[in-house]
């Protein structure tokens, strides 16, 4: 589903590359944790997968598409295949929960009647059926992240990228969000989750990719947050 071949990324004026010669394959339906200290390149890697940025060298292939070669006008098609959630939720503050989710379908041109039926379903799925008409600032952080996951998942993307999705949440809420992402994975979605949450990684025991100073320094099945000796 995702193939990285010798991917390097230099930012303009960067003193060193943000990613150096990263190669990895992530199969359809896998769940992968992406770990590494701040500045190790996790967000950069996710941005390349979303085509928010391009690699300086090497190739990034998502669902058979060389993402650097996708014309700008076709990038929205990639965003149907690859959903994403962020640490800071990124909801539209002046729109209701339902409107935030509907927006993701509107931007990809789904017909109104589809939006009207699918939005309540996905809100039910994330446990927010009762809160469809609330505004983001009326919700807890965990609820806001549920909305963000609903918005990312409503178009049934093949891949869900999560950049530090529990970074602003307390431990109990983090576990709830982890379970929701696990449910998204069990529904058949390939999930890549960048995280600093060692206890979640250790509890889940999934594949772990670790970056250090932009290099892939570990690719371990059933891994923990910290490499075991
Ligand atoms: P992480 O997500 O693991 O914290 P990042 O991908 O954000 O790491 O950063 C990797 C490296 O790239 C860091 O050295 C960071 O300072 C640098 N970097 C990230 N974004 C930019 C940018 N837009 N311009 C210049 N340097 C950047
Ligand atoms: P961008 O400027 O990143 O292209 P837009 O202006 O289209 O984003 O969207 C505004 C907000 O809605 C952003 O925070 C973006 O993350 C979010 N968003 C847009 N489309 C989607 C989508 N299909 N799924 C999830 N979130 C989306």
UniProtKB/TrEMBL annotation:
GO cellular component entries: plasma membrane
ABC transporter domain residues: 2-229
Subcellular location: Cell membrane
Gene Ontology MF, one: ATP binding
Membrane-protein topology: Peripheral membrane protein
Principal cellular location given in the protein's record: membrane
GO biological process, one term: cell division
Source domain of life: Bacteria
Keywords: ATP-binding, Cell cycle, Cell division, Cell membrane, Hydrolase, Membrane, Nucleotide-binding
Subunit and interaction comment: Homodimer. Forms a membrane-associated complex with FtsX.
Role this protein plays: Part of the ABC transporter FtsEX involved in cellular division. Has ATPase activity.
Family recorded in the similarity comment: Belongs to the ABC transporter superfamily.
Name by which UniProt lists this protein: Cell division ATP-binding protein FtsE
Parent-protein residues present: 1 to 229 of 289
């Amino acid at each position: 589903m995702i193939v990285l071949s010798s991917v390097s990324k230099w930012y303009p004026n960067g003193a060193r590359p943000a990613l150096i010669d990263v190669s990895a394959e992530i199969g359809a339906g896998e769940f992968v944790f992406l770990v590494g200290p701040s500045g190790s390149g996790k967000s950069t890697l996710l941005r390349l997968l979303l085509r928010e940025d391009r690699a300086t060298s090497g190739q990034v292939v998502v669902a058979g598409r060389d993402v650097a070669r996708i014309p700008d006008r076709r990038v929205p098609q990639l965003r149907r295949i690859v959903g994403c959630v962020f640490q800071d939720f990124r909801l539209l503050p002046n729109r209701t929960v339902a409107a935030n989710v509907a927006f993701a379908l509107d931007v990809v041109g789904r017909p109104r009647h589809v939006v009207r039926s699918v939005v309540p379903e996905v809100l039910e799925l994330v446990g927010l059926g009762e809160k469809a008409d609330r505004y983001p600032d009326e919700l807890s952080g965990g609820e806001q992240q549920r909305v963000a996951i609903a918005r990312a998942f409503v178009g049934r993307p093949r891949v869900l990228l999560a950049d530090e999705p529990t970074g602003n949440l307390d431990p109990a809420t983090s576990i709830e969000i982890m379970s929701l992402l696990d449910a998204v994975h069990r529904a058949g979605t390939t999930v890549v989750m960048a995280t600093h949450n060692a206890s979640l990684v250790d509890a889940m025991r999934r594949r772990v990719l670790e970056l250090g100073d932009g290099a892939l320094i570990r690719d371990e099945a059933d891994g923990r947050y910290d490499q075991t000796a």
